[in-house]
Amino acid sequence: MRYLTAGESHGPQLTTIIEGMPAGMPLVAEDINKELSRRQKGYGRGRRMQIEKDQVQITSGVRHGQTLGSPIALVVENNDWKHWTGIMGQEPLDDQSSEEVKRKISRPRPGHADLNGAIKYGHRDMRNVLERSSARETTVRVAAGAAAKKLLSLLGIELVAHVVEIGGVKAEKQAFASLEQLKEVTEASPVRCFDPDAGTKMMAAIDDAKQNGDSIGGVVEVIAEGMPAGVGSYVQYDRKLDGKLAAAIMSINAFKGVEIGIGFEAARRPGSQVHDEIAWEEERGYYRKTNRLGGLEGGMTTGMPIVVRGVMKPIPTLYKPLMSVDIDSKEPFAASIERSDACAVPAAAVVAESVVAWELASAIVDQFYADRFDTLKASIEEQRRNARDF
């Protein structure tokens, strides 16, 4: 499976085209819209979330509620486009003294793609960079992830993302009875945190940052249950599933770190407290007594829950802007301010869940016959039986 996205933050729409989904899989707009709605929630979000109510249009690849096996095109319109038609329009500008030209951006913001992108593509107006490098693009990555989540769910694989840290406030590790309980509790939390006391402190930290014109980051965790053992491969570096998951997390805007299982903690423990002992039961088959390696060994799934964490830096657009240099005059300036969030970690958890879902679904489609959903489902069930009886 693969997908491409297109569109600018204040352009008319965002688009993604998905290729490789099996035919005969149920898929309707509501499957995607509920995920888009989740992405727009979260304590600390900015005014853009009040302007946009993201809704998808499925414009190809689905007929009468089922996938066709042909490319699926998903479109999300930007409601704010009507206020940006002059600035972001496709037609050439006739008047070089127009308001659109006057709103040219020549002051790069520290922490953004502005300066590097301008140097790379030769843009003297850095709006050409920031419009595409904006995290608004994750809207349609969540849409693609929603289609992947639907596929996984129909194969008995479920995912939940939640927040474990914001602004230095860490959630206490608490046991949950099931992924369903984790999802229920965290979806009701404004910061998507399972620990209510930590959640309250996280909101206070976000309030403080906002009041100070600053921003804060955090850590999100994605857990997936139900993946059959043996998905991925050890035979080549680019077929290792943990490598693909790490790359997916790091591709999210503002993410600067990734862990699988206990992650960096493994560097501080002896091997006896890192590796997971193997056991076997007749009904269950092989399993691990612990899950410190996060459901992945040798680039392949073990059948245990997959656990991936991502580190999101504070959003670099600040209301007390850092200093920068105007690329035209070379004079120091306070960096340009665009609409921003004090904290987008709760929303980023949804994006992380989506990209993990995509990589898991893609790995399954790559490994098993997947032109038809019914044969794919039968193959996954057979794989589970083979792993249990091995």
UniProtKB/TrEMBL annotation:
| Binding sites annotated in the UniProt record for FMN | 132-134, 253-254, 298, 313-317, 339
| This enzyme's EC code(s) | 4.2.3.5
- Cellular-component GO terms for this entry: cytosol
Q: How is the cofactor bound?
A: Reduced FMN (FMNH(2)).
Query: Which pathway does the protein contribute to?
Result: Metabolic intermediate biosynthesis; chorismate biosynthesis; chorismate from D-erythrose 4-phosphate and phosphoenolpyruvate: step 7/7
Q: Which GO terms describe its molecular function?
A: chorismate synthase activity; FMN binding
- List the catalytic activities from the record: 5-O-(1-carboxyvinyl)-3-phosphoshikimate = chorismate + phosphate
Superkingdom to which the source organism belongs = Bacteria
Asked whether the keyword Transit peptide is assigned, the reply is no
List the InterPro entries: Chorismate_synth, Chorismate_synth_AroC_sf, Chorismate_synthase_CS
Q: Cite the SUPFAM superfamilies for this sequence.
A: Chorismate synthase, AroC (SSF103263)
Broad class of enzyme this protein falls into:
lyase
For activity, the cofactor(s) needed are: FMNH2
* Keywords of this entry: Amino-acid biosynthesis, Aromatic amino acid biosynthesis, FAD, Flavoprotein, FMN, Lyase, NADP
Task: Supply the Gene3D superfamilies for this chain.
Answer: Chorismate synthase AroC
The annotated region (Disordered) lies at: 89-111
Q: Name one GO biological process term.
A: amino acid biosynthetic process
Q: Which CDD domains match?
A: Chorismate_synthase
Query: Function of this protein?
Result: This reaction introduces a second double bond into the aromatic ring system.
Q: Which family does it belong to?
A: Belongs to the chorismate synthase family.
Recorded protein name is: Chorismate synthase
Query: Which organism is the protein's source?
Result: Mesobacillus boroniphilus
Identify the gene encoding this protein. aroC
